[in-house]
Amino acid sequence: MVLDLDSEERRLGYFLASILALVWGLAFPLTKEALDYASPMVISLFRVCFAAAILWPLSREASLDRDAIVGGLLNVGLFLVFLNLSVMYSTDPGLSSVLIYTEPIFLVILERVFMEKRLGTLRIFGLILGTSGMLLAVAGSGPVSLEFLGDVFGLMGGLSWAAGTAFYEVRLSRKPLLSTNASMNAASVPLLMLCSLVDFRLVVTPVSLTLLFAIALAVQVGGFLLFFKSISLIEPARASSVLMATPLVALISSWALFGMGLGIVGWVGAGLTILGVLIVIVA
Fold first, then answer.
1. Is residue 4, in this structure, part of any structural domain at all?
2. Boundaries of domain holding 195
3. Rounded to whole angstroms, how far apart are CA atoms 280 and 150?
4. Cα(211)–Cα(82) distance, rounded to whole angstroms?
5. Using an 8 Å Cβ cutoff, are 90 and 151 in contact?
6. Each residue of 77-116: pLDDT tens digit?
7. Is residue 40 within 8 Å of 87, Cβ to Cβ?
8. What is the dihedral sign for C-alpha 235, 27, 169, 177?
């Protein structure tokens, strides 16, 4: 895909998507660090409560209707639970990011099964390549059972995100951006409160509070606003192709900050997965 930078709006769209890839990529090792102070459920709850508290007052049309509840559960609540559990059980949060970002592969499959959209030869090739990469990346993570559990949760996060994306396109895409984000975050609060009661752990220190506020503000509030703003300026497929730099940022930053690495097999698998996803996006 050749980047089309012939207008100020498009340049801004690509710039915002690039900043977002950096922010979301760094979020994975930062979440790994935050797990030393809080459980995955508490981190998820903090993120959505903080986002809802900021976005709801700014929105004039936020509401908790059926669409907001379903979209919030898929795109925010369940997605965050799976993401944070994956980061917790995985020794390398970079691998979690690779598996989470298989969302386009799951999305294409869902669209084919439920919407009867044609795949095309190139997309089929991308699906095969991405799936092969996933299997290699998981195999490269080692035989430890808890590590495998992290892989499973990562893939479940990708599936939840894909289902949420499909639902957003059909039911929510015509609604105002700010109100939709506020509604989805608020709708996921009850689920995450229940999950936090089952798994509540929070150590209050200056470091833990800094991490929690940074993740909530930069990733949950700013990140999703950047995402939806970018896809309003450039085509979603182009924005998604730029965002495929996110797993690379997560892998490199995890290695730089914590010395975590996938090994040769894991890196090959991650590379094939990212390449397969890119092919699916641009095909």
1. no
2. 32-282
3. 24
4. 19
5. yes
6. 999 999 999 999 988 898 899 899 888 888 888 888 877 7
7. yes
8. negative
Q: Does position 261 have pLDDT exceeding 70, yes or no?
A: no
Residue with tokens 């752990």: 201
Q: Is 144 exposed, middle or buried (0-12, 13-18, 19+ CB in 10 A)?
A: exposed
- The whole-angstrom separation of Cα 111 and Cα 255 is 35
Phi, psi values for residue 173, rounded to 5°: -65, -25
Number of domains in the chain: 1
CA 20 to chain centre: 11
38 conformational bin, left if phi > 0, alpha if psi -120 to 50, beta if neither: beta
Residue from 97, 81, 46 nearest 164 by CA: 81
Q: What is the mean pLDDT of residues 28-37?
A: 94
138 found inside a domain? yes
Q: Per-residue confidence at 267, pLDDT binned at 50, 70, 90?
A: confident
d(C-alpha 77, C-alpha 151), whole Å: 19
Q: Give the burial class of 118: count Cβ atoms within 10 A of its Cβ; 0-12 exposed, 13-18 middle, 19 or more buried.
A: exposed
Q: Is the dihedral of CA 256, 257, 261, 262 positive or negative?
A: negative
- Classify residue 274: in a domain, yes or no: yes
Tokens (6 digits) for 21: 């890839």
Residue 44: inside a domain? yes
Residues in the chain: 283
